[in-house]
């Protein structure tokens, strides 16, 4: 894949590695998701890991919620094309087992993993095996002693307590997440945490919802944090096939000019000046075909020959429809005029001339 240039942003975190993937310290924002298969169903889990990786996931989290799952996880690890994060709740012994099974990282929830002694045992195992940890704090399961505080403050207090223990033990190979289902709470928690720690941050809105609402909430939250150097890895948590999370994640990163995967399609919303040219249908058709391209470039679908090329002058390629014909253009300059029925094929002929793929 061709990696396009991205904008620079402040570096506010130190760097760790999850497997061979650098997190924080100026590294590209890593994209991850989580399997929703039963981990003991090894074949289904491995297939989903491969599907997520093919879609662009750098990391994949897998639930290890019991001895049966742990046994399956062990096999999934050695068959996985990407580093795996073991997701641990309630039973800290699953974290110890996942470390021995070859996990690249273990995610623990301070609100339910047990007392600090058990947490220290997990840290010792991470130090022994050389794997990373994610301290994953959720607003819905924050530790009891912090529950009377405002939620964003409770998230920060819980995370900082665990950070302090880890650093006192000389363990720094961890990242932190502070998640809430309400965007303002999640944003404020991550902003406040960054004032006290340079640990890499994993960002996400927990229980974000279905594809439309979850994507909106996540974009609203990440757009307030990532450009300012807050956030080093992300997940878009959707009530959907997890593979569908990955294009949304890259869409958010690309819109912020932080990381690109594949082409970018822009289109006008359509109006009476289109003179019957189906902007909406053409844009959908173009976007669908471009899903198979890896290079990053911008394609514009505009409804008006008069204004379209000028308004989309930054696009690498574009079409502007008219009453009976249309114009194929590049960087605002017309390339050729074609009949309306030829617009789609002519556009991709021009894209093909430059060897885009």
UniProtKB/TrEMBL annotation:
Organism: uncultured Rubrobacteraceae bacterium
Role description: Converts 2C-methyl-D-erythritol 2,4-cyclodiphosphate (ME-2,4cPP) into 1-hydroxy-2-methyl-2-(E)-butenyl 4-diphosphate.
Keyword terms of this UniProt record: 4Fe-4S, Iron, Iron-sulfur, Isoprene biosynthesis, Metal-binding, Oxidoreductase
Top-level taxon of origin: Bacteria
IspG C-terminal domain segment(s): 264-351
Pfam families named in the record: GcpE, GcpE_C
Protein name: 4-hydroxy-3-methylbut-2-en-1-yl diphosphate synthase (flavodoxin)
Family to which the UniProt record says this protein belongs: Belongs to the IspG family.
GN (gene name): ispG
Domain IspG TIM-barrel as annotated: residue spans: 13-250
Family matches, as SUPFAM superfamilies: Dihydropteroate synthetase-like, Nitrite and sulphite reductase 4Fe-4S domain-like
GO molecular function: 4 iron, 4 sulfur cluster binding; 4-hydroxy-3-methylbut-2-en-1-yl diphosphate synthase activity (ferredoxin); 4-hydroxy-3-methylbut-2-enyl-diphosphate synthase activity (flavodoxin); iron ion binding
Residues involved in [4Fe-4S] cluster binding: 268, 271, 304, 311
Pathway the protein contributes to: Isoprenoid biosynthesis; isopentenyl diphosphate biosynthesis via DXP pathway; isopentenyl diphosphate from 1-deoxy-D-xylulose 5-phosphate: step 5/6
């Amino acid at each position: 894949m061709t990696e396009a240039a991205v904008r620079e942003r402040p570096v506010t975190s130190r760097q760790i590695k999850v497997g061979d993937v650098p997190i924080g310290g100026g590294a590209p924002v890593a994209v991850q998701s989580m399997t929703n298969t039963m981990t003991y169903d090894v074949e289904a889990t491995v297939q989903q890991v491969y599907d997520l990786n093919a879609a662009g996931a750098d990391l994949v989290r897998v639930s290890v919620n019991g001895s049966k799952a742990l046994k399956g996880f062990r096999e999934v690890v050695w068959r996985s094309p990407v580093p795996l994060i073991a997701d641990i709740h309630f039973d800290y012994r699953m974290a110890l087992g996942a470390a021995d099974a070859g996990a690249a990282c273990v995610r623990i929830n301070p609100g339910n993993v047990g007392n600090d002694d058990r947490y220290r045992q997990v840290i010792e195992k991470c130090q022994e095996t050389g794997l990373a940890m994610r301290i994953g704090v959720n607003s819905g399961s924050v530790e009891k002693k912090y529950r009377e505080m405002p939620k964003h403050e409770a998230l920060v207090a819980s995370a900082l307590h665990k950070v302090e223990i880890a650093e006192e033990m000389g363990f720094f190979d961890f990242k932190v997440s502070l998640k809430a289902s309400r965007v303002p709470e999640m944003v404020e928690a991550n902003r406040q945490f960054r004032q006290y720690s340079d640990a890499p941050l994993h960002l996400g809105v927990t229980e974000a919802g279905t594809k439309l609402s979850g994507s909106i909430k996540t974009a609203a939250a990440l757009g307030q944090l990532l450009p300012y150097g807050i956030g080093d890895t992300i997940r878009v948590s959707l009530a959907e096939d997890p593979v569908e999370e990955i294009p949304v994640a890259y869409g958010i990163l690309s819109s912020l000019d932080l990381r690109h995967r594949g082409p970018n399609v822009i289109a006008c919303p359509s109006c009476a000046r289109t003179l019957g040219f189906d902007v909406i249908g053409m844009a959908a058709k173009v976007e669908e075909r471009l899903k198979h391209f890896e290079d990053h470039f911008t394609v514009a679908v505009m409804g008006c020959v008069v204004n379209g090329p000028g308004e989309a002058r930054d696009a690498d390629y574009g079409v502007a429809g008219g009453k009976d014909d249309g114009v194929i253009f590049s960087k605002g300059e017309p390339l050729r005029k074609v009949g309306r029925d030829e617009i789609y094929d002519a556009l991709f002929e021009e894209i093909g001339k430059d060897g885009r793929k």
